[in-house]
Amino acid sequence: MLPFTVNFKVSARTLTGALNAHNKAAVDWGWQGLIAYGCHSLVVVIDSNTAQTLQVLEKHKADVVKVKWARENYHHNIGSPYSLRLASADVNGKIIVWDVAAGVAQCEIQEHAKPIQDVQWLWNQDASRDLLLAIHPPNYIVLWNADTGTKLWKKSYADNILSFSFDPFDPSHLTLLTSEGIVFISDFSPAKPPSGPGKKVYISSPHSSPAHNKLAAATGAKKALNKVKILITQEKPSAEFITLNDCLQLAYLPSKRNHMLLLYPREILILDLEVNQTVGVIAIERTGVPFLQVIPCFQRDGLFCLHENGCITLRVRRSYNSIFTTSNEEPDPDPVQELTYDLRSQCDAIRVTKTVRPFSMVCCPVNENAAALVVSDGRVMIWELKSAVCNRSSRNSSSGVSPLYSPVSFCGIPVGVLQNKLPDLSLDNMIGQSAIAGEEHPEGPVLQEVHLRFLTGLLSGLPSPQFAIRMCPPLTTKNIKVYQPLLAVGTSNGSVLVYHLTSGLLHKELSVHSCEVKGIEWTSLTGFLSFATSTPNNMGLVRNELQLVDLPTGRSIAFRGERGNDESPIEMIKVSHLKQYLAVVFKDKPLELWDVRTCTILREMSKNFPAVTALEWSPSHNLKSLRKKQLATREAMARQTVVSDTELSVVESSVISLLQEAESKSELSQNISAREHFVFTDNDGQVYHLTVEGNSVKDSARIPPDGSMGSITCIAWKGDTLVLGDMDGNLNFWDLKGRVSRGIPTHRSWVRKIRFAPGKGNQKLIAMYSDGAEVWDTKEVQMVSSLRSGRNVTFRILDVDWCTSDKVILASDDGCIRVLEMSMKSTCFRMDEQELTEPVWCPYLLIPRASLALKAFLLHQPWNGQYSLDISHVDYPENEEIKNLLQEQLNSLSNDIKKLLLDPEFTLLQRCLLVSRLYGDESELHFWTVAAHYLHSSSPRSPAVGEAAPRDKVNNPLDICYDILCENAYFQKFQLERVNLQEVKRSTYDHTRKCTDQLLLLGQTDRAVQLLLETSADNQHYYCDSLKACLVTTVTSSGPSQSTIKLVATNMIANGKLAEGVQLLCLIDKAAVGHPRRCCADVLKRWVDHLCSPQVNQKSKALLVLLSLGCFSSVAETLHSMRYFDRAALFVEACLKYGVIQVTEDTDILHWKLISAIYADYARSLKNLGFKQGAVLFASKAGAAGSDLLKELESPKLERTEE
């Protein structure tokens, strides 16, 4: 065993480069923490934390136009583990669903041969996670089962569909952006295609951006923003309006219900879909940079915007304190008319050129605190949001932007000032909730400004082709201690990139030349020669640059000194095997021979020296090997062991004997100063053999041309084999030892290059043609593998070389460099086999049992009474390799996260939330967010943190993105703010009527009466509205009037007039809407029953509703019935800690039975994971239900001790 370890294992991989225009929108950031993007026909997967390439998927035959990670909103267990599933779609209409970790295609889908416009995984069904909705041009939407590739249904529409967006609050609502307008579909279901053509609307948008003045300070100045009449209309707009063709993007806001944004180059419109009216406009001033893309956030009402200069900005909605009245007082005469989004931070722009422009942006879906920009040149820039706290006094009040408050809670629970927290964990941990109108913020929290502060990761691609590639000298026993597998890549802009092929990372970028690099030759493991030629002038002369580069220092010297201006272009350079001599071949100028060590010229050949078409140095190294060869040759000649071969022609045998004589002649003199030989061919195909020793160059032999070969283009020589390739695609194999020659016509046109593989006795050879490449075994003289452009691959090959003795390197015109096995098949690999320079946190790469065991290990700290991230202390009897992988994952966590996980004050609920973020587990994240909020606020006992619960309820409500799961009072305030905004925007009677209805439901009777009285006399509803106004003002709390109204309302509801009936009930405080708690809870409980029914099957949503109602024991029961044993056990633990479920064995038999059943089942599932210590822990908590399991778990220990 060697005392040192050197990593020179090179796995098959692809180095990717610039992207194609089709790849513009092909990028996605998954819940798994990985970013996937399309590069030509490849799909590249990178880690968002360390910006390392983890996988390159190759199977598409055309450019990739869309990639989408599968969602993670399901319960993960052994049956449905954490896995990396990705769908990618290409220009030819093919969709491939990948298992990314294994690098294999699970399923291929094809409908039409046109580019897929959009694709999305369905996420709302508990039953199926395999459904994929795709737009197949021009106008079809198709639902696929992505597991089997079967088509479930297909539906066509009248217009060309450009993209679609699902309503995050109601998955049956789907909106299509078409070339003509927008189509709203309200009956989307996985079971059957939508019924009708959908509701089609047109957008009429203004020519110029609206006046966008700053909101006046609190001076009660004139209205700040003009009313913008941007309406959604049913009629087609007239020609003078800009049609929807300008609309770049359509998306629902995930932060609040029924809001949608439309993106135009110079403005973003926020629409309220209840009234089909613009309620907010973000416009760019005339000198500003237009928008390219926008991503609305879920956790806060914010927008990540990408601009044409590559700058990413974050805009957050401004909150207005005390602007709207919340009681029936006189309303503010000048209420705010728009939702205003303030620019909170921006990152640096990139330098945009013809070839370099921003393509697309993606945002981290788990934490929403980072954005990645994909640039057309193949760069991926990852910007992370960092928060900086500033004092109230030091803040510049003249900026006109309201302050952002830091949140009260961390990981769902209010924390004390001194407690450990990670302020930048996620967007909702950076920005506190914006104050709902009419509420003053408490004095407590510190102000906090948010900045997109610095670039955390950068992944650069290869520059655009052409490429000249050369692998460094091979690994030998002598250089094993210092060897690094380095590949030099010469580029069209004159720089040389050196890649380390173990990691696939750029080792050095050297700016060596001023024009395109044509060839590279290594002179040692740490230095190389490269040459470049400028474009020829009208005389055909160029500037030749030949540089000698020292890699460790980056120093580069002009090898030929002052020579190089206005001369014939260099065709090739060849360094001898001992790295002593260099032959420089020109197009129309005699050969030059140089001494590499001293950079001096040995010989410039005379004018009448033949033109060189191909040249190769002999591998004869030193005298020792030469003598052996000499003896063998003499013996062979003496015994005359020449085999009779039908293919052996008289000419060829004489050629070989001449060549052998030449070698033996040159070896007669015993001077050991390294003497080397080279052969070259001229235009006629004549082979010359020359000897170089010191500064003498001797012409040793000439061999007449072979009649069967055309003009020779390249020569390769290794051991006793010499191979010649010609213009017509013939390969000629010469066995110098056996004096046999064989000509093989490959019928592949011009042989561009031939190279032998490294390694003693390895006689494999790669040949490059205009249309591909072949690997040959020269011993057997037969082809090993072949690659042909247009047939098995779409790219054209630019250069080839050997990477190791069994792997080849191909540079291609799609801007990629591939390291392939000798079979030259595609390059997907298993991600767990890859050598990475930095450790990557991605539990998805572990085997399913291990990733779930790791999760349990993190959740149930402390083990054996101590908080530790060292898994070796834990009784987990898996094999050592898996244990090491788990430890590697734990070690790759950031120090901040480790500190939190090891903090004894970090509560179980916070731990559950943090682990769900670490795992990117969507379903757990939503469950624990809602659970933490309601467990904390309904806790009878105050938890360890010294915060008063009642105050938290006011200051720390559940975020409005959880919609009806929020507290009633908070939800009503939000709705009121929304109605006030709608009211300002009123433009039609229908719009006013909707506002009136909402105001009545919210108990704002005075304002509702005012609106009812506005109805004009010629309106058909005039009489009805006037009567309603009278009714609203005269309703008293007297018994008879209440009972009459109740009777009328009941009749109305029974006869299908639901909205009107509910309004009447609201007037007398009998409806669930206006009446807090009790009625509301009854309605929601019925809804839970509906969600749990088999036809709806949305039990996970029902769980969240039960949590918001405080029905904690029902939640535990439902979790157990759904077999979510891990979540159920953790939830029961949390409930017991907070005292919301109190059980003892004698008081509450039912509760105790449920809890012990949950613990026992969880112990069994941990046993199945092989996590023994965890299983023992929960089996012992389960009491009688777990006693058998406990005995079973402890029995092997007894057996061991007896032995």
Automatic annotation (TrEMBL):
Residues in domain WDR11 TPR? 977-1068
Q: Where in the cell is it found?
A: Cytoplasm, Cytoskeleton, Cilium axoneme; Cytoplasm, Cytoskeleton, Cilium basal body; Cytoplasmic vesicle; Golgi apparatus, trans-Golgi network
Name of one Pfam family that matches: Beta-prop_WDR11_2nd
Give the signal sequence positions. none
Q: Which gene encodes it?
A: WDR11
PROSITE patterns in alphabetical order: WD_REPEATS_1 (PS00678)
Location of the WDR11 first beta-propeller domain: 21-323
**A GO cellular component entry from the record:** ciliary basal body
Which of UniProt's keywords are assigned here?
Cell projection, Cytoplasm, Cytoplasmic vesicle, Cytoskeleton, Golgi apparatus, Nucleus, Phosphoprotein, Repeat, WD repeat
What protein name does the entry list?
WD repeat-containing protein 11
Q: Which SUPFAM superfamilies match?
A: WD40 repeat-like (SSF50978)
- GO biological process, any: vesicle tethering to Golgi
- List, alphabetically, the InterPro entries matched: Beta-prop_WDR11_1st, Beta-prop_WDR11_2nd, TPR_WDR11, WD40/YVTN_repeat-like_dom_sf, WD40_repeat_CS, WD40_repeat_dom_sf, WD40_rpt, WDR11
